[in-house]
Amino acid sequence: MEFQKHTSTEMVTLFQNKPFQGQDPLKAKILFLSSDANYSPEISEHDFFKYILEYHKDGVNFWKKYNVHHPFLLPDYPFNRKKAGVPFHRNFSKLNLSSDHAAHISFIELLDIPTIGNKSDNKNLFWDLVSEDHLRYLDKIIQDDNEKLILIPGAILNDMEEMKKDYNVFDWIDYSNQSKSQYSQKVNRSTVKKIYHFSASQIHAQIPAIRNHIDNFLISSN
For the domain bounded by 4-221, which CATH number is listed? Predict the structure, then answer.
């Protein structure tokens, strides 16, 4: 499937009205930053879309109601479970976080629109879809005075360094000058840490360490 902006106007509007998933990132303690939110192209045309709407309306209550953090993990998900964001959320679920964590967890992306396909197939289009206003919104979230743990894959950190030059955002980032294998940086009261992408095979070995970071952070921030 060719990488592109999602073809559903309703899907795009969902993200433009609320460019995050789960808890509001201004209220969350744990942020997972990715590049783009990927969905099946047919999802808005299927009855299952009612769960997507419910999730985007209130991701915290969705987790508590269904005991899964995302609709992709519901047993009646009707599309290919090996594509379109499902591997990301399936691997995320292996952290074994419970609905007690729902109020702390937010997912947010570099793009403020949903997509179809893999951005690596058309990186130029990815850059064309970037919204400077959304990047400034992200930068504000990361640099605010609330204490947060912000977990970001290395490829996303590379993109953010490019955005730093092109859009005058993310002035705090110093990824290329640090040890990329152990990258960790304080930004005001928050901590930014590099992780593998949840769609990458390497994430499986890192999951215990990520869970440990989350547990320790939540204990220390209470």
Answer: 3.40.470
